[in-house]
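Hi R.,

Here's the chain you asked about this morning:
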Amino acid sequence: MLETIEKQTGPDPRWTILWLHGLGADGHDFVPIVPELVRPGWPALRFVFPHAPVRPITINGGMRMRGWYDITSLDFAQRQEDEAGIRDSMARVEALIAREGERGVPPARLILAGFSQGGAIALALGLRRREPLAGLVALSTYLPLGASLAKESTAAGIATPIFMAHGWLDPVIPEPLGLASRDALRGLGARVDWHVYPMPHAVCAEEIAALGDWLGARFAQG
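And the predicted structure, written out as tokens:
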């Protein structure tokens, strides 16, 4: 089981937001977002911020750091995906989802969110689940394992609401890659709420406000 950091906004949380960090960061990275995101009137939430496994990352000279999978090149058109690493991380996150069920929060009240690599894992896992999640949040990221998605995606996964946001100044994961991922998802029938902002590979206040609106709509339905 992955080590995690947890924050609760009230006793006996009925909802969980499971948030995956980006390459080289750890679970602490998005903890400060909690007070910026949470709004009055929301149900009690449990935020779960896992630490990705430590692994060698090829583009960083094989240096070992926290990452959900290896990156061999920043040329997305040419590089070979680390499918084994992606699927390993999907299984590890699935175990955290199961643990939330044991703690009284079923998948129908769990939001799986992620930034960059974390967002890629969120999309890859959420679209393949037989039991749908309440929603997927994919920030400054792209859709991995796209070649197998049409065969492996489920009706429940495709029906899961998705919030995607990107910076049009992003030098790490260029906006056109995010757009192509959005279009691929919509082509499968997924409901994607797309947002773009004048920012690099980062998160901005306007994005957090839009995400808060989107989350509030999910909570109102649950």
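The chain has seven helices and nine strands.

Let me know if you need anything else.
M.
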